[in-house]
Amino acid sequence: MKFEKLSEYKLKITMSNKELENSNGDLDSFMADPSVARKSFLDILNKAKEEVGFNVGNNKIRIDAKCQYNGDFIFTVTKLIPKKKNIKKVKPQKINSNTKENCLIYSFNDIEHFFTFCNFLKKQRINKIQLFSKVVELYKLQNKYYLVCNKINNAYEHIAKIYSCITEFGNFYSTQEIMAVMLKERGILVIKNNAIQIAQRNFK
């Protein structure tokens, strides 16, 4: 079992087929019984807290499951921010050379899902989106669209809302910069930069 803390709000869990069988059989049986799945995930999240410091606390979570070609299972856990919860605001900061580089890639089944996501952020008044990430590009590869966010500013005041919202419209793809390079080499560049802002301005 492998844990990857993608952010304060998102965790990636990779489990082999054997590990899943040791827990509760196959994926269908694992997810079919809510009480069993809840207990199993509580145990898994406790391990994640110990190993990588991902703490769910009293937050509600969303769990996305995906089976890989090699038989491994990937669970993406997202802490959801309640709409009425008062979130402590952080003063936006411009990304500079001292900011740690990081990468986040999400896939969208079609361009409409991406446009809907961008407009949803606007309706939620998630502004100053240019401070979220220094590089935000959109690529197309094999009939899917990929949003590449590189050099993310973790001090951006709406970062938690973006991580929570994006899972409603797209799927987590990777945090590896090598995958961003692969998209640049094999994919078609649809929007060079400021992809979210450009979509908000031109596609309503």
The CATH level-2 architecture of the largest domain is identified as 2-Layer Sandwich
Taking Cα atoms only, what radius of gyration do you get, to the nearest Å?
18 Å
Q: How many domains comprise the coordinates? A: 2
Record the strand order, biggest sheet: 8-5-7-6-9
The end-to-end span amounts to 42 Å
Q: Could you list some keywords that capture this structure?
A:
28% strand, alpha+beta, 204 residues
Walk me through what this model shows:
- With 204 residues, the chain is an alpha+beta fold.
- It has two domains: 2-80, no CATH class; 103-202, 2-Layer Sandwich (Alpha-Beta Plaits).
- The protein is 35% helix and 28% strand.
- The chain has helices spanning 17-24, 27-32, 34-52, 111-123, 159-166, 177-186, 195-202; strands at 2-5, 10-15, 60-67, 73-80, 103-108, 133-141, 144-152, 171-174, 188-191.
- The strands form two sheets. The protein has a five-stranded antiparallel β-sheet with strand order 8-5-7-6-9.
- A hairpin with a 5-residue loop joins strand 3 and strand 4 (73-80).
- The protein is globular, with a radius of gyration of 18 Å.
- It starts with a strand and ends with a helix.
- Mean pLDDT is 79; it is low at 84-101.
